[in-house]
Amino acid sequence: MTTNIQSVYNKDIDPVKTYERKVSPNTEFYDHVRGTKAFETRQHVYDDILLPHTGNAFLVKAGQVIRFEQRPSLHNNRTQIIDVHFVTPDLEQYGENGHSG
């Protein structure tokens, strides 16, 4: 027996749409950041090489981009593990990516 289910989509109760409205990105800001690459207006600020079993903290200001490179050729052709923790200067907001601990 087949049951025909009648339903109507309601974006007001869609959890994805509700979340999207609450945390929608500042597209103007990100368009500006992406534009710095397209218009070649980026400035190189800092390089660092982390030794094994060490870490470092980096202040990344609004509009700056941070890039991590894994270079297996420098480490017996093995991939390194990068744990990244993001914390606002006031320590009120944080996030992490790649946490392996």
H/E element order: HHEE
State the share of residues found in helices, binned by percent. 10-25%
**Total number of β-strand segments?**
2
Please tell me the overall pLDDT. 77
Quickly count the helices. Answer: 2
Order of neighbouring strands in the sheet with most strands: 1-2
- Which of globular, elongated, flat, extended, rod-shaped describes the shape? extended
Account of the 3D structure:
By secondary structure, this protein is of the alpha+beta class. 20% of the residues lie in helices and 8% in strands. β1 and β2 (94-97) form a beta hairpin. The radius of gyration is 21 Å and the shape is extended.
Q: Summarize this, please?
A:
It contains two helices and two strands. It is an alpha+beta fold and 101 residues long. The protein is extended and about 65 Å long.
SSE layout and pairings?
Elements lengths: L14 H8 L4 H12 L45 E4 L6 E4 L4
Antiparallel strand pairs: 1-2
Short key terms for the protein model shown above:
101 residues; alpha+beta; two-stranded antiparallel ribbon; 2 helices; 2 strands
